[in-house]
Structure formats: structure tokens, C-alpha cells
Write a structure and sequence with these properties.
668 residues; alpha/beta; 6-stranded mixed sheet; 16 helices; 28 strands; globular
Length: 668
């Protein structure tokens, strides 16, 4: 029989909203059910000791969320979430602390590998599908981090200073869309928002509840609460983990009349609601996939997310070609003086994988018909060492048909708690790329990284660049399948690759030890580069294929209160392939500032060789509105809007126009 607040003493209610330990809510020795939460980004991170921080149990390691974002594929997102839900059931976890929907404002942010996109619409839609699928399989979601946690530097103190319109259109927006899936919980951020700690951000919490319809529990990030009473009064229902001194202070504040019974009851009721909602959600749920099937799926997810950034025709590899391979990232299993799990993001998103770390040398010998040789060239830290001789890699490259350089970053550079210092690869890696490319024009760089890399020193010297991110359990097989053409790459960038950090708007904004001013406002990512005509290395939405696609026959049709966008995609090549088409909206005659264009729809579709597939995407009023600070609400201006269909943000293929008058739309 379910307990109610009437069954709890005041002291128990105060204790209930302070957590039990690191990972559980209070059960009062069995008086209540409890929920267990688990860290998550690249899979389930279940502690060996559920009452402490120490050690994690092996679990399925999936491609990082940044790679999931690069899939642009909602079916892949849903299956990914269903697999993770099965992992939660295996480990007795009720709530997964994810997905992360923070906007990728800066390419240096240490946790970008945990986030989905620089674009709020793309991040929100993918999070919504993730949450819906996760919870349908019995695991609760905790969407995070609300909000404006866009760097790790001094995250426990720094204040993100952001204007209201930018909050609404950029930083709140993915949470707004995610709320459509009714997540059971949400996590506050560490940082301050305009001077107020995320755990005390009542203004934002009111938006979530009163405008977005969020009816779940708000919990703190771990150790993010400074004042439990202030956080509770603001609407932070659950502090995690338990801090006895915070609990004692809360009791003293209650006795002093600083917090009322009504305010305590609101938080305690939400904890009770969460507990019973999670238990109800799990009833009758069985694993949808075996663990072996989940591990196999990591290959599929990685294949969907790998982005072919550059290719002069050297890929796919031809059977019988001789290959030289170099770079520690090809064989982390063989040269790991540290952990082989270095090829991933660090911090709470890191997962102790189940299967051995991949070995690209052995995989390529197995799947490729030609001779293959290997030289590490540099160490796991990206520097030369006495037993890794770069010169041998150059000699090998000179004698081979194709040269593959496996380079990148990893947990020592991309991790929770710190930001990258540069977008550049270590000098030893850049020199290896340049020196081997100088003797072999068919040099391919396979890039492992959780965020954009400055390639300015070497990108023009190589034949191809394959962005594989942090790939998870079966990543090696997925990479080999793309290199050899067994799989046609179809991933596209969910964030812009600028030429260098100095070209980003973030590099020009004010920041000190305590304050970061979001001076670029709405101009985040491609919105900035598009509007101001700033050249980039690879634009948002970019990704090449072994197929060629032609876009044709765009028609717009009014369908109720929506605009139906229809067009065809023809595969003009002899290779079956998938294409991600993107729908942008441009306000052509606005009386308020609007970025040049904004993503409002997308579709990923398999198109057989020589065939044409029709795409239909419906745009609702949200595609045309902006946040009016004058009226403190969403507004659609009268005027002309251009609907742009692109293969990327920069590759515009089709366009048509509509006119809006008094919110009535006419197709022109």
C-alpha cells in the first residue's frame, strides 16, 4: 500500500528531501520504497559500492552522446535508449542521470562529448525521443543540466550571464522540447544563472512547471546545493548526495520558521511521487534485448554516427591495397600503460566496458585483403616516447598504397571538471600526420574526439578525414566497415567545426573567474557563422557519403495550422546510401534581430541507388516564432519567410517562401 505524507513525521519529510547516500533516496528501514540512480552518458555507470563513490561495475559502453547526435536518426536514438534501459534493469537502477541537453556553446567545454548538439531544436528532439523510449522500457530519465552549464571551468561558482530571449530560444529550448516526453526527473546545474545558483533557480523552475508542463522531480547535481533551505524554497525537491550538515541546518531553519510545512510538503510529495512512479513504470517490464544484442547494437549506433568529413576518393579502401597504419589510437589494447578506456570522455560519463578494447590492426587484417603494417608513432598522451618511433611510421607510409593515421584526444583532455586548453591535437600527432602525408598522398586521418578539432595545420595535406568520436564497445568493427565500404557513412555534424578557436564568438566574450557573459546572444554555433559570413572548417550538418544525392521538386502545402514541406531525394550513384536532409527557416523581413536561418526540421532516409524517395516534414508555429521581450511571450511576426532545404547548413539545395499575416500563412 502506497504511503502518503500523512504517514511521515516532519523529521522524516525533512530527511526524505536530503537523500540517503550517494545514489539512493531514503527508505527509513523499509517504510518506503527507494529509488536508485546511476550516472550515465556512454552507458550505465553503476558503483561497486552503492553507498560510496568508489569503483564501477563493467557495463555496456555505447558511443558517446555526441556521436548519437551525429546520427540524426530517431530510430537509432530510441533503440539506444531502450538498450540503456535494459542495462538499468540489469543493475537495479531506477533512474538514469541523463540525457544531457546542454548547448555546445564552446568547442573547449570538457563535457561536450556528453551533449547532443549546438542546436536547441536538434538536441531537444533527440532528447525527447531518448526519454520516451527509455521510460517506455521501465527506466526513469533525469534530463540535465538546467541550465547554462556550458563550460566546466569553476562550474561550482561561475555565473552564466544570459539575456531572457537567449535563454528562451537557445538554452531553455531543448528542455522545453524534452518535456513533451514527460521525464520523471530533471537535474539542476552547478553554476549560477544570472547570479543565482542552479539549485535555487526558482524563475527557471517556474518556467519548467507552469509553462512547459513538467510534473516530475527536480534534483540537484551532486554537491551543487549550498543552502538546502533556499534550494527547497525555490523548488529543488531532492538534494544529492546526502550531507548531514545540510540536513541539520535544514532542521534548524525549520524550527526557526525559515521554511514552512507547506514548502517542505511540496518537495517531499514529489519525492514520494517519483518513487512510486518509477516502481509503477517498471511493473511487468522485461529486457527487450540480451546483453549480447546490446553490445552488437553499439556497432550499429557508431556506424550511423561516423562522419566522413573529407574524401578525395581514397575511401572506401580497395581490396588488395597495401595499408600502413600508425597512431596509438589504432591499438589502445596493445600500448596501454594507463587504462585502455582513455578513448572516451572522462568523469561521471566514463563506463567500464565489458569487451576488450578494440585492435584496429587485427580488425583490418581480418576485413581487408591487402598487406597491413603498423607503427604506434606516439603514446596514449599524444607525445613521442622512446619506444614509439615516428620515423618508422613515415617509412611504412612511403611504401604503402594508403596510409591511415589514428589520432585524437580522450579522457585525459575531455572530461567532466575541466575544459580543453586548445582545439589543436598534440604536436606529435600533427607531425605524424604531416610527415606521413608528405610521402603518401593517400593519407586518411581517423579522428577520435568528443568535440571539434582544429585541423588547420594538416587538413589540406590529407586525402580524407573520418570523424569517429568516442565509439564504444564495437567501435573498431564499425570504423573498419566504413573504411572498407561495407557501410556507407551517413552521419552528419551536430555541431560546427570552426577553423580555429579564435574564430568562435565565445573567444571574444567577457569571462573571468566568476562570470561568463553570453555576449553572442542568439548567435550560437552556425547561427553566428551564417549570419556574419565567418568561414568554417566543416559546417553544421555536414557529412559526406559514398553516394551522391540530388534534391528536387520542393512543394509547400498548408495543412491545418502546419506547413507541409515535401521534396524528393534522388540517389544518383550506384551505391545505396542514407541522406540527412535539413529544413531551415529564414525570417526575411523581421523588425527584431533574427539569426540568418535556424533549423526547424530534419529527416534521415535510406535511398537506394538510382531511386528517389520523398521526404515530408511538417512545420508548426514554433518554426516561425521568436521570444518577444516586449510582450514577454512567443510571437510570430507578419512577413515573408524562406523555407530552405539543405544537405548541410552551408549546402542549400532548395527553397520556397511563405507569407504570414496575422498568424495566417500563405504559400507563395
Amino acid at each position: 500500500m502506497k504511503k502518503t505524507l500523512k504517514d511521515l513525521t516532519t523529521e522524516e519529510k525533512l530527511r526524505l528531501i536530503c537523500g540517503k547516500d550517494c545514489w539512493h533516496t531514503c527508505d527509513f528501514d523499509g517504510k518506503l520504497p527507494f529509488v536508485r540512480v546511476t550516472d550515465a552518458s556512454m552507458g550505465v555507470r553503476m558503483p561497486v559500492n552503492p553507498e560510496s563513490w568508489d569503483g564501477v561495475k563493467p557495463s555496456v559502453s555505447y558511443p558517446s552522446l555526441q556521436m548519437l547526435g551525429n546520427t540524426w536518426d530517431l530510430e537509432t536514438v530510441r533503440t539506444y535508449a531502450e538498450c540503456v534501459a535494459d542495462d538499468c534493469l540489469d543493475y537495479g537502477a531506477d533512474i538514469l542521470l541523463g540525457p544531457g541537453v546542454n548547448i555546445k556553446r564552446s568547442p573547449l567545454c570538457g563535457r561536450n562529448f556528453e551533449y547532443l548538439s549546438e542546436d536547441p531544436y536538434l538536441a531537444g528532439v533527440m532528447a525527447r525521443e531518448y526519454i520516451s523510449a527509455l521510460q517506455s522500457q521501465g527506466a526513469g530519465a533525469c534530463v540535465k543540466h538546467f541550465c547554462c552549464n556550458n563550460l566546466e571551468y569553476n562550474r561550482l561558482q561561475q555565473s552564466s550571464e544570459v539575456d531572457e530571449r537567449t535563454l528562451r530560444e537557445i538554452y531553455y529550448k531543448p528542455f522545453e522540447i524534452a518535456m513533451e516526453a514527460k521525464p520523471v526527473s530533471l537535474m539542476s546545474s552547478y553554476n549560477r544563472i544570472n547570479g543565482i545558483y542552479g539549485s535555487e533557480y526558482k524563475k527557471g523552475y517556474d518556467v519548467l512547471r507552469k509553462e512547459y508542463g513538467f510534473d516530475g522531480l527536480i534534483m540537484s547535481d551532486w554537491d551543487a546545493v549550498r543552502d538546502r533551505t533556499a534550494a527547497a524554497k525555490a523548488g529543488c525537491d531532492l538534494e544529492m548526495p546526502y550531507h548531514p550538515e545540510h540536513y541539520e541546518t535544514l532542521i534548524a531553519d525549520y524550527k526557526a520558521g525559515k521554511i514552512t510545512d507547506e514548502e517542505i510538503d511540496v518537495c517531499a510529495q514529489r519525492v514520494l511521487d517519483l518513487v512510486y512512479r518509477c516502481k509503477d513504470m517498471q511493473k511487468g517490464k522485461k529486457r527487450k534485448f540480451t546483453q549480447a544484442e546490446r553490445i552488437a547494437f553499439t556497432k550499429k549506433a557508431e556506424e550511423e554516427g561516423i562522419v566522413l568529413l573529407k574524401n578525395n576518393g581514397v575511401l572506401p579502401l580497395e581490396n588488395g591495397q597495401s595499408l600502413s597504419m600508425c597512431g596509438w589510437f589504432a591499438r589502445p589494447c596493445a600500448y596501454n600503460r594507463k587504462k585502455p578506456e582513455l578513448i572516451c570522455g572522462g568523469g561521471s560519463g566514463w563506463v567500464e566496458r565489458i569487451t576488450p578494447m578494440f585492435d584496429m590492426l587485427e580488425i583490418m587484417k581480418r576485413v581487408h585483403g591487402g598487406a597491413v603494417c603498423y607503427e604506434p608513432a606516439f603514446s596514449e598522451d599524444g607525445v613521442d616516447s622512446s619506444f614509439m618511433i615516428p620515423g618508422n611510421a613515415v617509412d611504412n607510409a612511403a611504401m604503402s598504397d594508403v596510409n591511415l593515421v589514428f589520432a585524437g584526444t580522450g579522457a585525459h583532455l575531455e572530461s567532466e571538471g575541466g575544459d580543453k586548453q586548445t582545439m589543436r591535437l598534440y604536436d606529435a600527432q600533427e607531425r605524424t600526420i604531416l610527415d606521413t602525408a608528405a610521402v603518401n598522398k593517400n593519407t586518411v586521418v581517423v579522428l577520435f574526439a568528443g568535440s571539434p578539432v582544429d585541423m588547420s595545420e594538416w587538413v589540406d595535406e590529407v586525402a580524407a578525414v573520418v570523424y569517429v568520436g568516442f565509439p564504444g564497445e564495437m567501435g573498431g568493427e564499425a570504423i573498419a566497415n566504413v573504411l572498407t565500404g561495407k557501410v556507407n557513412p551517413s552521419g552528419k555534424l551536430s555541431e560546427t567545426f570552426p577553423l580555429c578557436y579564435e574564430d568562435t564568438p565565445v573567444s571574444k566574450g567577457y569571462a573571468d573567474t566568476k562570470i561568463t557573459r553570453y555576449e553572442e546572444g542568439l548567435d550560437v554555433g552556425y547561427r553566428y557563422y551564417d549570419t556574419y559570413g565567418v568561414p568554417v572548417l566543416f559546417p553544421f550538418g555536414h557529412g559526406m557519403s559514398y553516394s551522391e544525392f540530388a534534391y528536387k521538386n520542393l512543394t509547400l502545402k498548408k495543412s491545418g495550422d502546419k506547413v507541409e514541406v515535401n521534396f524528393g531525394i534522388e540517389n544518383t550513384s550506384e551505391i545505396d546510401g542514407k541522406e540527412v536532409s535539413q529544413i531551415y527557416v529564414r525570417a526575411m523581413s523581421s523588425y527584431v534581430y533574427r539569426p540568418y536561418k535556424e533549423l526547424k526540421g530534419f529527416a534521415k532516409m535510406l535511398v537506394k541507388a538510382g531511386k528517389t524517395e520523398n521526404v515530408c516534414v511538417k512545420l508548426d508555429r514554433h518554426a516561425f516564432e521568436y521570444w518577444s521581450t516586449a510582450t514577454n511571450g512567443w510571437k510570430i511576426e507578419d512577413g515573408v519567410y524562406e523555407i530552405i532545404i539543405g544537405a548541410s547548413c552551408a549546402d542549400e539545395r532548395l527553397s520556397a517562401k511563405v507569407k504570414i499575416k496575422n498568424e495566417e500563412l500563405t504559400v507563395l
